[in-house]
Specification:
- The chain has one domain.
- It is 72% helix and 0% strand.
- With 301 residues, the chain is mainly alpha-helical.
- The protein is globular, with a radius of gyration of 19 Å.
- The model has no long low-confidence stretch (mean pLDDT 86).
- The chain contains 12 helices and no strands.
- The longest helix has 28 residues.
- Keywords: Membrane, Transmembrane, Transmembrane helix.
- This is DMT family transporter.
- It is a multi-pass membrane protein.
């Protein structure tokens, strides 16, 4: 099913910048919450809380969640992919650093673009989009690439797991775009993923022997609430609404903005150093996004 729009308008661009900022701040929230909640258990709690919140929101808006619409199989698949992505990400971070992990995680837009060639023929990739995405990824490498230099030890295990997580991230978006899920509400699409991950992640945490919640300070609780309300509920509902309305490949190019926003948030909220590389990366990512999303003459309005 072709998207309603063929290119991103100002409203979509504004929302994507807002969401990428929220997802960047999430990196800080996860760091704070990790001081008191195990990673996979934290992801499970986030899914449980967000499931309840999005379900209540959908009921208040009278969204038809239980109508037979042929989305059950695709919804469960999307939920399993969603759960696998976060499980692999959090497990991988036990072996490798967050900065190395970012590089491998943000290969996801390229997998999305490659999958779109076969699964989303109505969203053709132009050479400018490939070039823009490559430039934006170059900005991520400027920011974190030096962490790939030097002895890696066992970091390759985490790198590999996060690289696979990136494939699952792309596969989740492709599942939404290429199946009946693209015709249902953003709330229902998200609830499939949240509910399945809420069931899968807590038992996985127990199987991994995580201590669970071991130091629930006010800061840890605040970080978890932010993830539930702002990230997994509000921003994800908005993201899946955008995926229904706009080309996924154009939206994906904005994801490169998230790690840069995360570093900026770390500087503002945690006092982490902001080096010239941060601003160089922001410039490269911004230029890459502009090139990838610049409308062709026939799409100009």
């Amino acid at each position: 099913m072709p998207p309603t729009k063929t290119h991103l308008d100002r409203f979509a661009i504004g929302l994507m910048v807002l969401f990428c900022t929220i997802w960047g701040v999430q990196q800080v929230a996860v760091k704070v919450a990790n001081a008191g909640i195990s990673p996979v258990w934290q992801a499970g709690l986030r899914s449980i809380g967000a499931t309840a919140l999005v379900f209540a929101w959908a009921l208040a808006r009278r969204v038809r969640l239980f109508k037979t619409d042929g989305t059950l199989a695709a919804g469960v698949l999307a939920g399993l992919l969603f759960a696998a992505e976060f499980a692999l990400l959090f497990i991988g971070l036990q072996y490798t650093s967050a900065s190395r992990g970012v590089i491998f995680l943000y290969t996801a837009p390229f997998f999305l673009a490659l999958g779109a060639v076969w699964l989303l023929p109505h969203e053709p990739m132009r050479r400018a989009q490939w070039a823009g995405m490559a430039l934006a990824f170059g900005g991520v490498l400027v920011l974190f690439g030096e962490n790939l230099i030097g002895p890696a030890g066992e970091a390759w295990k985490g790198d590999l797991l996060i690289f696979i997580a990136a494939i699952f991230w792309a596969a989740t978006t492709l599942t939404v775009k290429a199946t009946a899920l693209v015709r249902v509400s953003a709330e229902k699409t998200l609830l499939y993923q949240l509910a399945v991950s809420a069931v899968v992640l807590p038992p996985l945490s127990l199987a991994l022997g995580e201590p669970g919640m071991f130091a629930p300070t006010p800061a840890v609780w605040a970080s978890l609430v932010f993830q539930i309300v702002a990230v997994a509920s509000a921003s994800y509902v908005g993201w899946f609404w955008l995926v229904r309305q706009y080309p996924a490949t154009r939206l994906a190019s904005f994801s490169f903005l998230t790690p840069v926003m995360g570093v900026l948030a770390g500087g503002v909220l945690l006092g982490e150093p902001l080096t010239p590389a941060v601003f160089a990366a922001l410039g490269l990512v911004g230029l890459g996004i502009w090139i990838a999303n610049r409308p062709t003459p026939r799409n100009r309005v």
